[in-house]
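2024-03-11 09:14:02 INFO receiving multi-entity request
2024-03-11 09:14:02 INFO entity count = two
2024-03-11 09:14:03 INFO echoing inputs for audit
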Amino acid sequence: MRTRIKEFRARYDLTQEELAKKVGVRRETILFVENGKYVPSLRLAHDLAMTLHTTIDELFSFDDE
Amino acid sequence: MEERVIKRLWAAGTVTVSLAGFVVLDVMLGGSALRWNIHVISASAVLAAILATGSVALWAAWKKKQDAKAGYPAKDERTRFQEGRAAYYTVFISMYLMLALLWYNFLGVGPLDLPALDATQTLIASILAIAALFAGFRWYFLRKGETT
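2024-03-11 09:21:47 INFO inference complete, emitting structure
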């Protein structure tokens, strides 16, 4: 799984801590999602996309696994 | 003080207190680890494990308070998922642990003439072992666990 969370975070000048608080998860969860090591639930993906003013398919992409 | 430093100091304190508990009870019961009195050693080990568990519980409570102060939830979907995974593995390993104890009772105490286990100590040790297994798996999955 690839994500563009870091890129969007930088665009809105948000730290991992700030993004975590906005979507109501722990900072480590943002770290794992950002590194592609944790596939978030649809709810969390939606919340992340809304917070970063984008869409889920802009934020996440999957290689053929 | 940085959280990492506090964590290390707490871990060092936990080890020290547990070891001290082990040695003090060992001496009080008149045993010595060198004499290999299984009952004295296991009683001392159980006390050390209880002290360690208490210290870890205190750490967890302190961390939870700090997280709440910083505005993080105590649990989120990833921690719940990984705790579920940890519980699943703990159940399997615990089953094998119980089977091993059962076989020890059947074969060890009878035909092999090994010392019989004290029921209370075995129960306390099993509970602590299960708790330690869960804590270990939880720690591992929360840091290394991947779901992709």
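2024-03-11 09:21:48 INFO post-check: Chain A touches chain B through 19 residues (CB under 8 Å).
2024-03-11 09:21:48 INFO post-check: The mean pLDDT of chain A is 92.
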